[in-house]
Design goal:
By secondary structure, this protein is an alpha/beta fold. Helices cover 38% and strands 10% of the residues.
Length: 252
């Protein structure tokens, strides 16, 4: 396979969205592999439904680099779930972490999640998630990034297309139009597990201090993250004003 730069090929994103409107998720993954070759990576959080994307992608591209940003604050169940899937699917896992250990970060900045305001949470997310992911993409020479985002998850994700441009990297979303039933059916068809905290009422799970089970008072599953103060950790948000303007106009 040959590394591909963003100048080669120049993608017609509008035409691609039309091409993928009724495409199967596996077709999108195959197109991604053929288009970007060794520049293609996939990310995972080892969250509630992560087995779907990991299985979908790794059975088509067995050696694809799988980026896992380990914040150091994940539940014990997540680390065990990750170990199970890494072994079962023989994943080419690439673990990235903040250069600041949890203890060092807390000494310098405090327990940012306890401040319960968006500014502190954003600082936490940049230190523990965004910077490691940006470093991973750079070090792995990524030109395209497969992710398991779905339109029904957050307001921001409703604006996304199958192929988007973020920080000069193409982000490809094969299961963008899937819903919870599609996820369940895929897991059942391939005998794949949900994250173990699913049985305790978690619809989404990240760090232990900023995730909780769904309750009747919640409007949606993302209300259970980040103390209900925000929906995104920053990994899937535009990193520049130009990108933000593009997303706001739904032009990607």
């Amino acid at each position: 396979m040959v590394n591909v730069t963003l100048q080669e090929p120049q993608l017609n994103l509008q035409a691609i969205q039309q091409q993928f409107a009724n495409a199967d998720a596996s077709e999108i993954v195959k197109w991604s592999a053929n288009t970007f070759g060794e520049g293609l990576v996939v990310s995972t959080s080892f969250g509630i439904q992560s087995a779907v994307m990991l299985h979908l992608v790794s059975r088509i591209i067995p050696d694809i680099p799988v980026i896992w940003v380990d914040t150091g604050y994940l539940p014990a169940e997540t680390y065990r779930f990750a170990a199970e899937l890494i072994e079962r699917l023989n994943l080419n896992i690439q673990v990235y972490q903040s250069p600041l250990s949890p203890a060092r970060m807390e000494a310098l900045h405090g327990k940012l999640w306890e401040e319960r305001n968006v500014e502190a949470l954003n600082r936490y997310d940049f230190i523990r998630k965004v910077e490691p992911m940006q470093r991973a993409l750079k070090e792995l020479g990524a030109t395209a990034w497969l992710a398991g985002l779905r339109r029904d998850q957050t307001d921001n994700r409703k604006t996304m297309d199958f192929v988007n441009l973020q920080s000069n990297i193409y982000k490809i979303l094969p299961i963008l139009n899937w819903n919870s039933k599609n996820i369940y059916d895929y897991l059942q068809a391939h005998d794949l597990p949900y994250h173990p905290l699913f049985d305790q009422g978690y619809m989404t799970v990240g760090d232990w201090h900023s995730s909780r089970p769904l309750t009747l008072e919640d409007d949606g599953e993302r209300d259970t993250r980040f103390h209900g103060l925000k929906q995104e950790c920053g990994l899937h948000l535009p990193q520049t004003m130009g990108e933000e303007k593009s997303l706001d106009s739904s032009s990607l």
